[in-house]
Design brief:
The chain is an alpha/beta fold. The protein contains twelve helices and eight strands. The longest helix is centred in the N-terminal third of the chain and has 14 residues.
Length: about 290
Amino acid sequence: MDYGVREPARLGQTRLPDGRLLGWAEWGPADGAPVLVCPGAATSRRLGFGGDVVDSAGVRLISVDRPGLGASDPAPGRSLTGWARDIRHLVQVRALRAPLAVGFSQGAPFALALAADGLVDAVAVVSGSDELAHPRFTSSLDPQVRDLVDAVASRPEDAEADFARFGSADALWDLIIRTSPEADRTVYSDPVFRRAFRRAMREAFGQGPAGYARDTVLAMGRWPFDPADIAAPVDLWYGQQDTSPTHSPDLGASLSRLLPTSTRHLLPTAAGSLLWTHADDILRTLLSRAR
């Protein structure tokens, strides 16, 4: 099956005001509607999606490496707010008019941070990590995830060091396969997809594990914004077969109630990989939300 994984049409880096470089990859027409992608955990800019539909949909898909991963320079101690500042500069320098955003898995809080900062006109959260440290999940987290969330809350520097010691392309791949249902393993074991996914993970760890570790601390801590203040439309996409312990424990149900302009899509036969199995639906729905 074709899961829409393609080589990027364009690769580049943008220099930020502090001198750091921010790496990005693009697919689709250069004059298409800009859609910023916040990738999942420990994957680089090269793992896109919807490569079979971006041209016909008129989408300029732009995947951006977070600091310390892939082709983006590190920024120790960075925050979700700092990520929004970086992307604001990218949007201005590259003249990205009325951008939209997609946040996959651990990329969800990063995409929502862009919406909270007023940078994007609409967001699609796909198999997204939720605000796991929020009190509404006190009793519903997987016990191991609860321990990690508690560690980030009580001793963030130690937790970040622990994540760095664990983090590697092989360790994360093994964890993904071990915690995925059959519907996801079918996608991840496809030869073309697997090759692209594994390469993106190797690139993400090219500078070492610090970027992944910082991402994980930010994803497992409290968000520096209130979802209720997000005015942009947000589509929440979840597969009912998703078994990831670090995605939303209630598959976006409570997050949808917090977001004032959200629409939740719960797909009965899909799992965590729906970014690649339902790319056309996700992108065309996102485009329909544009102002």
